[in-house]
TrEMBL record:
Domain annotation YchJ-like middle NTF2-like: ranges: 41-136
Protein name, UniProt field: SEC-C motif-containing protein
Classification of source organism: Bacteria, Bacillati, Actinomycetota, Actinomycetes, Micrococcales
Membrane-crossing segments per the record: none
Tree of life domain: Bacteria
Matches recorded under InterPro entries: NTF2-like_dom_sf (IPR032710), YchJ-like_M (IPR048469)
Pfam family, any one: YchJ_M-like
Length: 139
């Protein structure tokens, strides 16, 4: 699966910097999850995956994708910039093993100046104490 040309990892924010997902400081929000700690909720995993796109961390995206639906390869476009995340709704099933997160993510392509919004309802599964991205419906 390709999200553009070969990716270069961008520098991560400092622990006290605002988190790209908008959920607090990077060190207390997505930084811990990008460093390998399990996300406590599907929404937090969604936020960390948005942040991974923002900082160019394809390894985190791959590691948090459910093995049954993960692409064999993943490349990110270094020209793509993610400008903001809005969580619209997050629900977790009563069994605490399935969840959905509806979000809007604003982006722009640096060279062309083109802008857009990705609106998706993502599905997540919890296995062995970790949340995984399963798939999503883009509208």
């Amino acid at each position: 699966m390709s999200f553009g040309t070969a990716a270069e990892r961008r520098s991560r924010p400092a622990p006290d910097d605002p988190c790209p997902c908008g959920g607090g400081t990077f060190g207390t929000c997505c930084g811990r999850i990008l460093a390998g700690r399990p996300a406590p909720t599907a929404e937090q995993l969604m936020r960390s995956r948005y942040t991974a796109f923002a900082v160019g961390d394809a390894a985190h995206l791959r590691a948090t994708w459910h093995p049954s639906t993960a692409p064999e390869s993943l490349t990110l476009d270094p020209a793509m910039r993610w400008d903001g995340l809005d969580i619209i709704d997050a629900t977790t099933a009563a069994d605490d093993r399935r969840a959905t997160v509806e979000f809007r993510a604003r982006w722009h392509d640096a060279p062309s100046g083109q802008r857009g919004v990705l609106h998706e309802v993502s599905r997540f599964r919890r296995a062995a104490g970790r949340w995984y991205y399963l798939d999503g419906e883009v509208s």
